[in-house]
Structure to design on (200 residues):
């Protein structure tokens, strides 16, 4: 039977017809999904979006249209995946601190000192404080070299220079998701180190 005739069966209430089309086009959806990358998601998420597009195609297809069901399904699947990607891309403008907070107090919640202050070395007028602060920075920089991988160090350096996830990913020839993962690891390692350092 043609797909269009199976759609007619579905319209008449035959749910097996819908199931048949879903199974028939599942590999088609998978092959379409391979062409796309969704920030913060894995391949299964993209396939799910494609399957939603397929459901919409089955629901909305009209036989009086000049295109075949396959062409219509292709369009619906692609649109659904692209819409999901655009939505995810808009989220990339959310401040990076919602993922990796370098502005978190380093000692306790009441503390005014943040990790960013320590790493970047803010200007301090008191000479004694300058010496202590510089010793802390040197100590942290040495420790960072020990506890962070070379990728994590590169990502952190670019991040502190103000580069976006996308810019860092392009600079290092990696996916945006791997940059996000690296910054998450940096955050966890530095938080652990600072907690241990503070408890000594």
């Amino acid at each position: 039977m043609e797909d269009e005739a199976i759609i007619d069966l579905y319209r008449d209430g035959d749910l097996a017809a819908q199931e048949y089309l879903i199974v028939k086009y599942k590999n088609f959806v998978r092959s379409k999904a391979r062409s796309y990358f969704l920030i913060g998601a894995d391949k299964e998420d993209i396939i799910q979006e494609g399957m939603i597009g397929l459901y919409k195609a089955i629901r909305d297809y009209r036989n009086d249209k000049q295109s075949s069901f396959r062409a219509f399904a292709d369009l619906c699947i692609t649109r659904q995946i692209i819409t999901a990607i655009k939505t995810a891309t808009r989220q990339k403008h959310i401040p990076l601190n919602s993922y990796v907070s370098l502005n978190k107090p380093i000692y306790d919640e009441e503390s005014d000192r943040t990790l960013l202050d320590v790493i970047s070395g803010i200007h301090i007028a008191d000479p004694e404080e300058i010496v202590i602060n510089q010793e802390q920075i040197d100590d942290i920089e040495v420790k960072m070299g020990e506890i962070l991988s070379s990728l994590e160090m590169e990502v952190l350096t670019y991040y502190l220079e103000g580069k976006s996830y996308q810019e860092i990913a392009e600079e290092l020839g990696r996916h945006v998701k791997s940059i996000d993962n690296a910054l998450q690891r940096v955050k966890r390692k530095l938080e652990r180190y600072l907690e241990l350092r503070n408890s000594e």
Summary: The radius of gyration is 26 Å.
